[in-house]
Known about the structure:
Strands 3-2-1-4-5 form a 5-stranded parallel β-sheet, sandwiched between helices. α1 packs parallel to α2 and α7 packs across α8. The chain is α/β, with parallel strands linked by helices. The radius of gyration is 17 Å and the shape is globular. The chain is 39% helix and 11% strand.
Amino acid sequence: xxxxxxxxxxxxxxxxxxxxxxxxxxxxxxxxxxxxxxxxxxxxxxxxxxxxxxxxxxxxxxxxxxxxxxxxxxxxxxxxxxxxxxxxxxxxxxxxxxxxxxxxxxxxxxxxxxxxxxxxxxxxxxxxxxxxxxxxxxxxxxxxxxxxxxxxxxxxxxxxxxxxxxxxxxxxxxxxxxxxxxxxxxxxxxxxxxxxxxxxxxxxxxxxxxxxxxxxxxxxxxxxxxxxxxxx
Length: 232
């Protein structure tokens, strides 16, 4: 692979997507980071995405404006309380109210469109099927189905100029393994934001599912989360 191959990387500003961006950089891609302002409660993550993109180095970072609040149906886009203090076994059962209907389908569709314009056949996404909070659009089956659909959906695909590959390097990793990988690649996790319900200045709540999974990953590695250390 040459250094000039382009990749669209979905970048939320969280721990997982920052790690994926670093992995794509290691693999020699020219990076095109794509974030979304979708009416999310935790809009602070976009500030984190800007910091991460600048830190890791991207050719372009774009923020697509969509508003999923018009549908609601999620604690992240509607007037529904974000669950706090759940045990790990609670997180592993059922689909939580922080699930945003069709979010990854929508995000990947935007990534597919940009990849076609860029002449890229590679999209990276930080989905995870191990330490994840029950989201159906984080499963390998979903990614495989979308990839198959995507290769039928574009002019570039029909003309044989694009064979889209959706890269999911974190899909079978635990949060602890993701963190180790990121540290090895020089990711500064102090720049990221994982919380579903942060303060107006971006401080993590420490009790939502995303915060608890993040804390578990750092704890299992025997190291401090820089966000928690900064807060204290």
